[in-house]
Automatic annotation (TrEMBL):
It comes from Brasilonema bromeliae SPC951. Residues 1-23 form the signal peptide. Keywords: Signal. This is Biotin carboxylase. It comes from the Bacteria.
Length: 138
């Protein structure tokens, strides 16, 4: 009888004092554009895993957090194509992250490297982000 009573008390207490869930929060990204990196940042850029010359760009835009909580560690996803509609980031749609997005609309920027042989203008499509309502990475 005591075991059943204790089990019931533990069950009730665990329901009442359940920690809040840390779930993904979707972030709308808009007004996406890009510009070349300043020379001190982009000098000598190479593409990932090679020694091929690359151009450095800064992608900028606005992030809209429609919740009342700050979102942390938001991964940025999107597609980038060159002037010939060739993918700039082959087999890769995670482009980077935003460390912290307060409620409301805020600016963000992201540095990317593009192979020097891919012609401009770049086409930035399907940008979005998803993050957490509490810090999960340290």
């Amino acid at each position: 009888m005591k075991v059943i009573l204790i089990s019931c008390i533990i069950a009730v207490v665990s329901w009442v004092f359940t920690p809040s869930a840390v779930a993904l929060t979707q972030i709308k990204l808009f007004d996406i554009s890009y510009h070349k990196c300043p020379s001190e940042i982009g000098k000598g850029s190479v593409t990932s895993g090679t020694t091929m010359a690359a151009n450095c760009f800064i992608v900028t835009g606005k992030a809209e957090n429609g919740t009342y909580k700050t979102v942390y560690d938001a991964d940025i996803f999107g597609r980038i194509y060159d002037a010939n509609n060739n993918s700039v980031m082959e087999n890769r749609n995670r482009l980077g992250s935003i460390q912290e997005i307060p409620p409301g609309v805020s600016d963000f920027e992201l540095r990317i490297s593009v192979a020097a042989n891919q012609p401009e203008p770049l086409k930035l499509k399907q940008f979005k982000a998803a993050g957490f309502s509490a810090q999960v990475r340290r």
